[in-house]
Design a protein that fits this description.
Elements lengths: L4 E4 L2 E2 L2 E2 L1 H17 L3 E7 L6 H6 L4 E6 L8 H15 L3 E5 L2 H14 L3 E10 L5 E7 L4 E6 L6 E5 L12
Parallel strand pairs: 1-4, 1-6, 4-5, 6-10, 7-10
Antiparallel strand pairs: 2-3, 7-8, 8-9
């Protein structure tokens, strides 16, 4: 099987953020076009019970990273906890909500690993020729950009919350 599409999910008040579920559903669409799996990484404290909800929205695999230090968000804590697990996945795409949390740690990881990062994305896909492609907004929503990378390039994507909505759980 090809490298997975990975989502780094976020929680708030003991539940998954809607933006995280949007990322899982977007990842499911991309994974189907690549004939690969959706792997969700769920960092936090006492979050294991949320794995079933992630599966109901399209996750094939959920890796829970539980630690007391993750009960309160810190960019350094998330980097220390998430980076080793994410590196092992060898993801073709890594999706995360374009939130304050994501903006505080994902650009740092992208720079360290020299992996392209696209923020404010409204759609993620793979072209018919196999090239990673994202659509994003800029200039306060007045401009839509299309970005394409070379085939085989791993890309980190921050999906704009609310852009696709959350569908019903899968049966």
């Amino acid at each position: 099987m090809a490298a997975p599409v990975v989502v780094v999910a976020e929680t708030i008040y003991g539940g998954l953020t809607p933006a995280s579920l949007e990322c899982v559903e977007e990842a499911r669409d991309v994974a189907e076009s690549l004939a690969t799996a959706v792997h969700v990484i769920l960092p936090g404290h006492q979050t294991a019970a949320l794995a079933d909800e992630l599966a109901a929205h399209g996750a094939d695999r959920v890796t829970v990273i539980e630690h007391q230090a993750l009960a309160q968000f810190s960019a350094d804590g998330w980097l220390a906890a998430v980076a080793p697990v994410l590196k092992e996945t060898r993801a073709v795409f890594t999706l995360a909500p374009d939130s304050g949390y994501g903006r505080s740690w994902l650009p740092r990881l992208s720079a360290r690993w020299r992996i392209p990062l696209a923020s404010a994305c409204i759609r993620v896909k793979v072209t018919d020729e196999g090239y990673p492609e994202v659509f994003r907004v800029s200039h306060d929503g007045k401009l839509h950009e299309r970005q394409i990378w070379a085939r085989g390039t791993a890309v980190m994507v921050m999906l704009w919350p609310g852009v696709r909505g959350v569908g019903p759980a899968l049966p």
